[in-house]
Amino acid sequence: MNTVQIISAVILVLALLPLLLVGKSYQGFIEPYKESFQFVFLAPVGLSIIDKTRLMYRLSGRLVAIQQKVATLYQAGREVQAYTKMYLAELISSMLICLLGGSFLALVNGGDELMLTLGGVMALLLPAISIKRLDEKVTLRKQAIIFELPEFASKIALLVNAGETCQKALIRCTMMKQHDSNPLYQELKESVTKIQNGESFNQAMEAFSKRCGVQEVSAFTTTILLNYRRGGDQLSLSLRELAHTLWEKRKVISKTRGEQASSKLVFPMILIFAAILLVIAFPAISIF
């Protein structure tokens, strides 16, 4: 065995040995989060590393931003620490998979140094890529909420203008979209359930605003809470003005998504153009 094969074998042993030693000790902790995270089979190793190195304590200052994003994305609430820990475990599991894959391929291919290096580089790049993906998911969630909010506000304004109370209008509009997968309606459904179970309208709407974590939703809930007792024309007028502003923001989001879709098509179009050029040019070149 050459040096690369020895290093690969050592990495494989060091990566797989903790999995055997840890066993099912974290099974109870992992069980509630299985559906939300990937590579759960390697999560015990990541959780063990986090606990033994006190990673969350050492990086507490740097984890604040990640915790906020995790809380927004997974609706962690009081369990934000546990969700953040699982996110870090998933990240460590992804890095281990890269190292294991690179080491295994290097070992099988007779000590291919390129495979081992590629696995190490991927493992180092994964944290930055994962955090960027987390940012993208949070942004998409916020955009999805803002995209649906003007229509929802307009419906409530119409119902209130027709004589419905604000609370009943909100419940009716939410129940009409109870099977919608948009995060706005998912959060509204939770708020409606709380209201029907006896929680005050004010508390339910404030909690709804916090869970969404979107400035536009905060403006919407503030408008409702300031005017819902008055009802009638005042609330309807305030909601119509807010809906008009939100429609403009929805147009901006649609325009941004269109531009992003166009930019993603540039590379495939270049490849297609190169392929066509090659097909046309090759016969002419082969003649000469």
Describe the structure.
The protein is flat, with a radius of gyration of 26 Å. It starts with a helix and ends with a helix. It has two domains: 109 residues, no CATH class; 114 residues. With 288 residues, it is mainly alpha-helical. α1 runs antiparallel to α6 and α5 crosses α6.
Query: Main sheet, how many strands, which sense, barrel?
Result: none
Count every beta strand, where a strand is a DSSP E run of 2 or more residues: 0
Count of structural domains: 2
Unreliably modeled segments: none
Helical proportion? over 70%
Taking the alpha carbons of the first and last residues, their distance comes to: 51 Å
Shape by Cα distribution? flat
Count the DSSP helices: 12
Topology as a string of helices (H) and strands (E): HHHHHHHHHHHH
Helices and strands in order:
Blueprint: H1 3-22, H2 27-30, H3 43-53, H4 55-58, H5 64-74, H6 80-108, H7 113-161, H8 166-176, H9 183-196, H10 201-212, H11 215-227, H12 232-287
Tags for this entry?
mainly alpha, 12 helices, 0% strand
Please give a quick description of this structure.
The protein has helices spanning 3-22, 27-30, 43-53, 55-58, 64-74, 80-108, 113-161, 166-176, 183-196, 201-212, 215-227, 232-287. The chain is mainly α. α7 (113-161) runs antiparallel to α12, α8 packs across α9 (183-196) and α10 packs antiparallel against α11.
